[in-house]
């Protein structure tokens, strides 16, 4: 037969003794009702408004967190990244095959030493670029996996 709805009923523990605080209410001279929670042992009180304020702050923080990590498009992003990695890895093996072919051409006497050096230098810088790109993409993929894990954890 309670007169009020205590929104944090059975949810607030006394900070001193850890006992569940009971709901109370009082009416001020102006006729305004005040709802609070009180520990029956320590007589400690806390107003419901204060609890509400702090839980709203907590919920807002949590919402911000969700907005940051919630990428429903992530599986697609992840797939794109995987495809990009495959593309660059194929490019890398092409370049490495080319390297073998150039060296073979030199051995077969089809290429001058100067030309060999120029070709190899060019090829190596191309290989470096592709390797860096793969590295970057793999890092991106790991971070996406990590974010996905956090999301799953929070959903649980
Ligand atoms: Zn207490």
Model description:
Helix 2 runs antiparallel to helix 3. It is rod-shaped, with a radius of gyration of 33 Å. It has 2 domains: 1-57, Single Sheet (N-terminal domain of TfIIb), CATH 2.20.25; 74-155. It is built from 3 helices and 3 strands, in the order βββααα. It has helices at 48-69, 74-107, 113-155; strands spanning 22-27, 33-38, 45-47. It has a 3-stranded antiparallel beta sheet. The protein has 156 residues and is mostly helical. The mean pLDDT is 86. Residues 14, 16-17, 19, 39, 41-42, 44 line the site of zinc ion.
What key phrases describe this protein's structure?
2 domains; single chain; N-terminal domain of TfIIb; three-stranded antiparallel β-sheet; 3 helices; mainly alpha
Task: Briefly summarize what is shown.
The protein is mainly α and 156 residues long. Helices cover 63% and strands 10% of the residues.
Note the topology.
Blueprint: E1 22-27, E2 33-38, E3 45-47, H1 48-69, H2 74-107, H3 113-155
Antiparallel strand pairs: 1-2, 2-3
Helix pairs in contact: 2-3
Bound molecules: zinc ion (ZN).
Residues 14, 16-17, 19, 39, 41-42, 44 line the site of zinc ion.
Beta content: 5-15%
- Average pLDDT taken over every residue: 86
Low-pLDDT residue intervals, each spanning 5 or more residues: none
Spell out the helices and strands N to C.
Answer: EEEHHH
**How much helix, percentage-wise, in residues?**
55-70%
Helix-and-strand structural type: mainly alpha
- Count helical runs: 3
> How many domains comprise the coordinates?
2
Largest sheet: 3 strands, antiparallel
Q: Identify the quaternary structure here.
A: single chain
CA gyration radius, whole angstroms: 33 Å
Number of separate strands: 3
The shape, in one word, is rod-shaped
> Which small molecules are bound?
zinc ion
Instruction: Give the spatial strand order of the biggest sheet.
Output: 1-2-3
Q: CA-to-CA gap between the ends?
A: 37 Å
């Amino acid at each position: 037969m309670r007169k009020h709805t205590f929104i944090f009923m059975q949810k607030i523990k006394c900070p001193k003794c850890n006992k569940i605080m009971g709901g109370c209410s009082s009416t001020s001279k102006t006729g305004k009702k005040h709802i609070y929670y009180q520990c029956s042992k320590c007589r400690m009180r806390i107003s419901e408004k204060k609890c509400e304020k702090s839980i709203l702050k907590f919920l807002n923080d949590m919402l911000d967190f969700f907005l940051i990590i919630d990428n429903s498009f992530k599986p697609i992003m992840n797939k794109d990244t995987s495809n990009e990695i495959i593309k660059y890895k194929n490019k890398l093996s092409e370049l490495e095959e080319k390297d073998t072919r150039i060296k073979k051409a030199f051995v077969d006497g089809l290429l001058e030493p100067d030309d060999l050096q120029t070709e190899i230098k060019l090829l190596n810088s191309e290989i470096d670029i592709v390797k860096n790109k793969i590295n970057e993409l793999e890092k991106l993929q790991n971070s996406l996996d990590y974010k996905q894990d956090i999301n799953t954890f929070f959903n649980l």
